[in-house]
Write a structure and sequence with these properties.
Keywords: ATP-binding, Helicase, Hydrolase, Nucleotide-binding. This is Helicase SNF2. One of its GO terms (molecular function) is ATP binding. The structure is a single chain. By secondary structure, this protein is an alpha/beta fold. Helix content is 56%, strand content 9%. It has 36 helices and 13 strands. Helix 1 (2-58) packs across helix 8 (155-177) and helix 12 crosses helix 34. It is globular.
């Protein structure tokens, strides 16, 4: 009876079992390959980390051991024997300590236990930094090992998670289902075993069908392929690190399970809010970028609390966190989202969404805004519009699901602090119809309680009675705890301890009408230098100047010093006029060297926020600008080494804060052509030459000819814009 019931079924089951075994082997291969890649990183990291710990312990006097033991340790004999630091005790070992005159077994054990306790504390705090300008064998080995994980990308985490689940389930299912693979196996199995086998087969069939529907085999195969690639050469690894260092540090933190100050990284939220955030899932299937730990927490916070202000200090990636939230909601079935932002960052939002997620970004701006809006209503995606444009769009009325976004993101939310303005009323109309709203602002709200009350009124009005000036007066931590359901803010110094001290952001802007007219005239004339500064033709409407004002204002709110570089003296004069009083400089070629240094000294000595204007050729070499933690480049430079050296004036030894570099760029312009050409030069040669002593002393040694580059860009722009002027008119003129 058993034979007749399983005969035809056994063949199907054998095929199913074979499929399950193949899937199990693929999962185990991924886990093995991933474990090997992790071990390579840990092996490369260990000596670097040990040296850092040793240096820290060397700086701690041996007397600190008495503090650890609450005064119970006698150190006289150790000090007499020449043990001056905790490191000396930590590395000595019990046998060596006990051989010292006057040091008994108890003293030796206590001293060693205290030294180990301090070492464990130091191990949790030291941070490894990889210096791209001073590579050495051990950090090179670490960069090469990390590149394997970085190259695999965000898909690797999904593959490892899928492999882990499959290994666990198939490890139990396959042995249980094995008797069903043949007539004899089922015949010899007892009744309970046969029932278990058939149940396991049913579950196996469901599991393999689900894996097939989600292309899990392809995911696993790609992960193994990525993990088994031939290691990169030293130059390739360092070039890649320079291009995406944040991803390398993110992988490093994940591998070594580095934990920054958890309360600070979580914005000092009360435990009940933090627990709710930790319980919130975060789907990354529609995301193309890895998140830092604090960014992951910020995205979960926005999801768990639904209507909130994310107020992280500038430079911490608020945009990336918002995109992670939108990607999660898209994976959960939502189709329509809205981003409202100043016009100066609309292009950046469009580019970031396309680069960091699979979501479709639709700028709803300009003459074709209504067509774009209807396209969004019908097909979904992320509509990106400006404050000035929002009131012209039909607000959702609840009649159709397509009209109601799954989330509204409001960037630079302090723009709507006055509820009586037109832009504020438009934001209120949209946010009032949406369950999820995310306000972004780098302004510390604890300094502006009335503004914060205005923002909370859009989000969670029930919190208003708890928000008082007396709460803010008690300090930022007390303020954040009192408004925790609706506000999360982290500072750079709390969460960027293991990140590189350089964060680079390209700020893409569109020409104003006057700037575009000036640009077209410069292209027609073949005037390369006029093309480069055309974005500053109209001081009142220049998008670049508008964005620069915003960056400086946000830096002022956070007490950060700013240095602004331009190749052109007239651009710096315009910047000075736009920023008003309290600006130092410009440091230019017309200023004597002694006067330049006095300007820098005065800028450095100024308390809190200050701005220094510098002509890039005059200030890019020799001056120490490490007081600045925000660098703004008004235009891309023809010589990459010139920009590199200018940034290095701020990002150098002794800089205690991460340095943010903002490049102001105009779309469809000389800026875009220049970056494209320079990017497509032979990067490996640049990476090698740029780090040589010769390159540091003579930028011309590795840069291509100014006149050749200018001529090429002018010709390309004339062709692109269908200008009537012929090629060869692109001579570079003096600034």
């Amino acid at each position: 009876m058993v034979g007749s019931s399983v005969g035809p079924v056994g063949k199907r089951e054998r095929s199913l079992l074979a499929e399950g075994v193949g899937l199990h082997e693929a999962a185990r291969d991924v886990l093995t390959d991933h474990a090997r890649a992790l071990e390579a990183v840990r092996a490369a990291l260990a000596p670097i980390h040990a040296e850092l710990v040793g240096k820290e312990l060397e700086s701690i006097p041996v007397s600190r051991l008495k503090d650890v033991t609450e005064g119970r340790l006698r150190l006289g004999a150790l000090e007499t024997a020449g043990f001056a630091s905790v490191r000396a005790v930590y590395e000595a070992g019990r046998y060596e300590l006990r051989r010292l005159p006057g040091v008994g077994a108890q003293t030796a054990d206590r001293a060693l236990a205290a030294a180990r306790q301090l070492a464990r504390a130091v191990e949790e705090t030291v941070s490894v930094r990889m210096d791209v300008d001073r590579p050495e064998p051990r950090t090179t080995a670490l960069v090469i090992a990390l590149r394997t994980l970085v190259e695999a990308g965000p898909e690797l985490r999904r593959a490892v998670d899928a492999a882990t689940r499959l290994d666990e389930r198939l490890g139990a299912l396959l042995p249980a289902a094995r008797p069903a693979g043949g007539r004899l196996g089922m015949a010899l199995a007892g009744r309970e075993r046969r029932r278990s086998a058939l149940d396991a087969v049913a579950e196996l069939r469901e599991l393999t069908a689900d894996a097939g529907a989600r292309d899990v085999r392809l995911l696993l195969a790609q992960a193994s392929t990525d993990l088994l690639r031939t290691p990169a050469s030293e130059i390739e690894a360092w070039v890649d690190f320079e291009l995406r260092s944040a991803e390398y540090y993110s992988q490093l933190a994940e591998v070594c399970e580095h934990r920054s100050d958890v309360p600070a990284a979580e914005g000092f939220l009360p435990s009940e809010v933090a627990e709710r955030v930790h319980a919130q899932a975060l789907d990354d299937t529609r995301r193309r970028v890895s998140l830092r730990g604090y960014q992951d927490f910020g995205a979960r916070f926005a999801l768990a609390q639904r209507r909130v202000v994310l107020g992280d200090e500038m430079g911490l990636g608020k945009t990336v966190q918002a995109i992670a939230v939108l990607a999660h909601l898209a994976a959960d079935g939502h189709s329509h989202f809205l981003v409202v932002c100043p016009a100066s960052v609309l292009i950046n939002w469009t580019r970031e969404i396309g680069a960091r997620s699979t979501l479709r970004a639709l700028p709803v701006h300009g003459a074709e805004r209504l067509d774009a809006y209807e396209e969004w209503r019908e097909h979904g995606g992320v509509a990106i519009t400006t404050y000035d444009m929002l009131h012209r769009l039909p607000a959702p009325d609840g009649e159709g699901e397509g009209a109601k976004p799954g989330m509204v993101v409001v960037d630079e939310a302090h723009y709507v602090k006055n509820p009586d303005t037109r832009r504020s009323r438009a934001v209120a109309a949209w946010t009032g119809h949406c369950e999820r709203v995310l306000f972004l602002t780098g302004t510390p709200m604890e300094n502006r309680v009335e503004e914060f009350r205005s923002l909370v009124r859009y989000l969670q009005p029930a919190l208003l009675p708890a928000i008082r000036h007396t709460t803010a007066a008690a300090g930022p931590h007390a303020f954040r705890k009192s408004v925790a359901p609706a506000y999360l803010r982290r500072n750079q110094r709390d969460v960027l301890t293991e990140l590189p001290a350089l964060v680079e952001v390209d700020e893409w802007e569109e020409f104003s009408a006057a700037d575009r007219e000036a640009y077209l005239k410069a292209v027609e004339d073949g005037n390369f230098m006029a093309m480069r500064r055309a974005a500053y033709t109209d001081a009142e409407k220049s998008a670049k100047l508008g964005r620069l004002r915003e960056l400086v204002a946000e830096a002022a709110e956070n007490g950060l010093k700013v240095v602004v570089f331009s190749y052109f003296r007239d651009v710096l004069a315009l910047v000075r006029q736009a920023l008003g009083e309290g600006v130092f400089g410009p440091v230019s070629g017309a200023v004597p060297a002694a006067r330049r240094q006095r300007l820098v000294d005065d800028f450095t000595a100024a308390p809190g926020h200050a701005v220094l204007l510098c002509q890039i050729e005059a200030a890019g070499i020799g001056l120490n600008l490490q007081a600045a933690s925000v660098v703004v480049l008004c235009e891309p430079q023809v010589k990459p080494t010139m920009e590199h050296q200018a940034v290095a004036r701020a990002h150098r030894m002794g800089q205690v804060r991460p340095v943010q570099v903002h490049r102001l760029l105009a779309t469809d312009s000389v800026d875009q052509r220049l970056l494209h050409i320079l990017k497509n030069k032979t990067r490996l040669f640049d990476a090698y030459a740029r780090r040589s002593d010769t390159a540091e002393q003579s930028p011309d040694a590795v840069d291509i000819s100014d006149s050749d580059l200018a001529r090429r860009i002018v010709e390309e722009e004339q062709i692109r814009l269908a200008a009537a002027v012929g090629p060869g008119q692109g001579g570079a003129r003096e600034p």
